[in-house]
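Readers of this paper often ask what the protein records in our data store actually look like. Such a record has a labelled line for the sequence and another for the backbone structure tokens. The tokens are whole numbers drawn from a learned vocabulary of local backbone shapes. We quote a single record here, exactly as it is kept in our systems:
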Amino acid sequence: MKAPSRRPARTPAARRAPGPAATLLALLTLSGCAWHGGGFPGGAVEGPRRDDKAFGPACPQVAPGTANAAALEKTSVLAAIRSMPQLSELTALVKEAKAEDMFRSMQNVTVFAPTDAAFDKLTEQRRKAIAEPGKAGDTVRSLIVAQDLTREDLAAGQAYPTLQDGVQVRSATTAGGGVAVDGAEVVCGSVTTKDARLHLLDALPAEG
């Protein structure tokens, strides 16, 4: 009697290599900064970067020359934020949120970066509240959109979902021809790093 043939065992789906979005979500969870929705909003974790010139009145202080701007384009967003004296409060907030691994894992995202002057506008009570261990991660996630947003995108006046579950930021054109995000004006936009686009703000979104 002929022995029945056996089919080769299938590799379980759980053993397949995770895709970029799954890897990023795993890193976000490990860092304590997981996005709490049903998936990664926007889905733009990789893809081509679009050209966009830096704009805004504070740009000469942020990237005062072609050489410096070129250097930033080869720098990670986390290192870029740490290198800017006017973003020391944001740097401290990222550290408090234990979000360093989250920043290292991101690709082609937009980070809305409140300057130190933006934090100075908050009351002492409010500053303590957003930096509490249980709130710092929420604050940081609410400043990141999983899309590469240029000045043209912000001028379109649309709402974009952030990494914080249920939180969106809405952009608009200001009376002076600039752009704002939830009332916070972009003082230097489209500062590009190798993995993100930074828009520096004069206030925290929705608190400007």
Summary: The chain has a mean pLDDT of 80. Residues 72 and 80 are 7 Å apart (CA to CA). The radius of gyration is 20 Å. The chain has ten helices and seven strands.
